[in-house]
Amino acid sequence: MRILIATNMAPFVWGGAEELAVNLQRHLVDAGHDSEVLRIPYQWEPATGIPSQMYLARVLACENADRVVALKFPAYMVQHPHKTLWLLHQYRQAYDLFDAGLSNLPSGEAGQRIRGAVIRADAIAFSELDSIYVNSEVTQRRLLQYNGIESTILLPPVNDPELFVGGRSEGYVFAGGRINGMKRQRLLVQAAARVPSCRLVVAGPADSPEDARELVECVDDLGLRDRVTVDIRFLSRSEYAAYLNDAAAVAYLPLDEDSLGYVAMEAATARKPIIATSDSGGVLGLVEDGVTGWVADPTIESLADALASAVSGPGVCESLGVGAHDKLAALSTSWEEILERLLG
Amino acid sequence: MRIALFSSYVPFVRGGDRQIVDWLATMLERRGHDVERIYLPSLPWENRVLQEMAAFRCVDLSAADRVICFRPPAHVIDHPVKVLWFIHHVREFYDLWGTEFSVFPDDAAHRGLRDRIRAIDTSAMREAHAVFTNSETVTNRLLEFNAMKSEVLYPPLLDPERFRCDGFNDEILCVGRVEPAKRQHLLVEALGHTTSQVRLRLSGVSESPDYADHIRRLISSQGLDDRVHFDNRWIDDEEKVDQMAACLASAYVGYNEDSYGYSPLEASHASKAILTTTDSGGVTELVIDGYNGFVVEPDPGMLAERMDQLFVDTDRTRQMGRAARRRVVDELCIDWDHVIERLLS
Predict the structure, then answer these.
(1) CATH 3.40.50.2000 fits B160-331, yes or no
(2) Where are the alpha helices (H) located in chain A, listed in sequence order?
(3) Is A204 left (phi over 0), alpha (psi -120 to 50) or beta?
(4) Owning domain of residue A92
(5) Interface of A with B in 21-40 (CB under 8 A)
(6) CA angle, B20 as apex, B14 and B24 as ends, to 5°?
(7) Is residue A91 domain-shared with residue A218, that is, in the same domain?
(8) Could you point out which of A117, A329, B206, B267 has its C-alpha 20 to 30 Å from the C-alpha of A175?
(9) Which positions in chain B touch A9 (Cβ < 8 Å)?
């Protein structure tokens, strides 16, 4: 069968969603199908360009495919008689972020018009689908609340589990992934300042030069250079895995993330416990205080307590790490079953 | 530099028009540039060709410092530094209009559509920072139909040094998609007229099962089953290199092609003479009759004569093979340094 995977791309940016699309393609090909990934350029700024980008996705010629599996807004607007949605992202700015006053949509009537167009187009796209899957409870709830659509969770295993073998702890806490305000690496550094025995490694690409500068300045201002390592760059997967495999625990504090988060899932795969915060959203589906890691309040004091516990010795980390591994295994779906569901 | 390579494609159909993009991406990356490839599907059917152009106009690649556009309608994108490496028009509305290959009736509605498309193409070209093509053929069409001047940049192969010559067997090799416009049937008909024991090998996939069946019937009806090897499947690169290395000569007889096609270029790097026809388009820019191959009328009898000659006069066939390599390497200088210098100027 010819299966087209339709997703969006931000030009020159490559992340977990891109890896997932490629991974899905690989598993489809291994199962004997012909599969291609269609990556439709999408920029959500300026918001006034959103309707024309929905139009773009709607017009693209996909009839050569027997099936379409769509992953993101607005790629799922492509027209095809056999379209399955495995939703990673809808346009939250028109839904929950709009209600929370965090939308990039212009205020007043102009914003309302764009929002209305997104909601109407979503309703049409969702009505055309063979079936609807999501990759997290948060997305599932949001889809039900805002679009009245029931969906089933299909959580894929991490993209490259063979890299995350775990191993002996070198005793530091690792914070990997993209560096930006939403991921709150600075809060973590401030907490580490309160725990003299805590060594911390923050490594990953910064979203902007300001994000990078602010983090480095924070470490310098607190005089933490001797025990906080900051490695700001795009790491290869093996470099990233090496940092993770040697860590005692992983800290991941996104603000209200949709899904479990690749960083947390990779930590669990490597049997490392995870520090998250009570406002980390979907990540809390995996991080359970005292079972798979620590759920701190998003405050310096509370995070400092979690860090102190994580570096207090290998015993607690090892048992929480096994807990994280087992919980992830229970939550995730095998690729075999994912393909069966998506093509069913 | 952040460079976006933007082209259209037909999902699940693999052909030469993706290689020019993929190979340029590789070569730019080797030179340290940050490259993003964007392929969007296009099947320019009449009821949505204008919609598709409008959609491609909406593509936002402002994150790139420069956009290089290939297959239409990628060239309609709005970007301050847009460079076209134009590989063909939607030919149904251009040179194929009114020919036997035309798919549209010559009525007022279709003429209106044709003129609209040509007008949009022309204004999209005028916005460009620079306009290049892949052949004299396309450059001439741009001048004729869009009054647009352009510079020819012949697309090189990726790592052409892979192609080698191991010797000369008794097969004339035709590699490429098996399609009516590629006219493999001409070669089979020609073989029926040959007087020597020259053989033919057709290697490639087919999107038109009817045409592949037609070729099979043609082979059988002329009693050529022993002398034609019809390899109707996807030939991977390694296998192609081996087939090129072993063959007697290569053949490429498509109808009015936009460019020389990769197969004749590969044959040239493998030091093999090229048999083609006067109406084959771009490939006739590469092949000089009697020097690095033969260019004959698209007639089975004439082709048969040259096939026999290639088989019988092997000294000359080898000599033309050596000239074929000289032609692309020394005379036309088909290489990436030149291409990239021009595209980034």
Answers:
(1) yes
(2) 16-30, 50-59, 96-99, 108-127, 137-147, 185-193, 209-221, 237-245, 262-269, 300-310, 314-331, 335-343
(3) left
(4) 2-154
(5) 34, 36, 38-40
(6) 130
(7) no
(8) A329
(9) 36, 38
User: What does the pLDDT profile of chain B (345 residues) look like in tens digits?
Assistant: 999 999 999 999 876 678 899 999 999 999 999 999 999 999 877 778 999 999 999 999 999 999 999 999 999 999 999 999 999 999 889 988 988 878 888 999 999 999 999 999 999 999 999 999 999 989 999 999 999 999 999 999 999 999 999 999 999 999 999 999 899 999 999 999 999 999 999 999 988 889 999 999 999 999 999 999 999 998 888 999 999 999 999 999 998 887 888 899 999 999 999 999 999 988 999 999 999 999 999 999 999 999 999 999 999 999 999 999 999 999 998 999 999 999 999
Indicate the angle between helix axes A314-331 and A262-269, nearest 10 degrees: 110
> Given A36, A43, A65, which is nearest B60 (Cβ)?
A43
Question: Taking CA atoms, what residue in B is nearest to A49?
Answer: B58
Q: Beginning with the edge strand found earlier in the chain, give each strand of the sheet holding A2-9 in spatial order.
A: A34-41, A2-9, A67-72, A83-89, A131-134, A152-153
Cross-chain residue pair B61–A59, CB shorter than 8 Å? no
Interface contact flag, B58 A53, Cβ < 8 Å:
yes
The neighbouring-strand residues paired with A293 are A274, A289
Q: Which CATH number fits domain B2-153: 3.40.1360, 3.40.190, 1.10.10, 3.40.50?
A: 3.40.50
For A286, left (φ over 0), alpha (ψ -120 to 50), or beta? Answer: alpha
What separation in angstroms does the CA of A240 have from each of A77, A163, A229, A263, A314? 35, 9, 14, 10, 21
Considering only CB atoms, B42 lies closest to which of A10, A53, A61, namely A61
CATH number at residue A244: 3.40.50.2000
What interface predicted TM-score (ipTM) does this complex get? 0.82
